[in-house]
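Course assignment 3, question 2. Fill in each field.
Student: A.L.
Task: Predict the tertiary structure for the chain below.
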Amino acid sequence: MSAPPIDEAAPAARPADTADDARARRRAPSTLAVAWRLARKDLAIEYRTRSAFFASLTFSIIGVAIFYFVWDPTAVRAIDVAPGVLWTIFAFASLLGLHRAFAIELQTRAMDALLLAPVSREALFLGKAIANLVYVSAVLAITIPVAVLFYNLPIGTGLVVLAGIGVLAAIGMVSVGTLFSSMTVHTRFAELLLPMLALPFFIPVVVPAAQASARLLLGRPVSEVADWLQLLAAFDVIFFTACLLLFPLTIED
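Answer field:
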């Protein structure tokens, strides 16, 4: 009995695992989900140790105190000197934690596992940036009241706007700091290279933040602060977009 003829025009049979692969792709976490998991991991490590947080917070408080005791109130008003002191100290203090963003995976080479994982490099950057933003914002949330108490600043109803300025400044610093931290973590002089690379890019963030804070403390209307806030937001968008696009080119495979 002869075998039935084979229809050459019939489509080839699909591999047995094609449907499973399709379901696996559908179950793959999104970029934001991966970023949030990575951020939770970094925040959990920092919560257990608190080394970087307390180091940055101590630096900020001591810096505010030093500037207060060497400041001559008869020569310069507190309302004139406090904004510059606050944001300059905050810029340096944030570097202490930003350096640790990728250093926590350096000893165990956990970054190799993250690079081999089927996730985008953008998700890695977002995860690190989110964790750094939470950490930096926590330091700033304590530093601002300390500066207000030391310099007896008239905050009043401008506290919400001042908090918004802090968030915008933190976003710009975190974007730049996260990128340069990934570039310098494998170098011998990472602690020296990170400030040298990041601080020049902090200037476009610190200057609008200090100018907006000074006008706000002087009792100026929010409309006069809006221009500086728009400039600060524009730098945030530029820095965040550029760092997000450049990060896959700088991270080591």
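Instructor remarks: Residues 30-250 form one domain. The chain has ten helices and no strands.
Grade: pending
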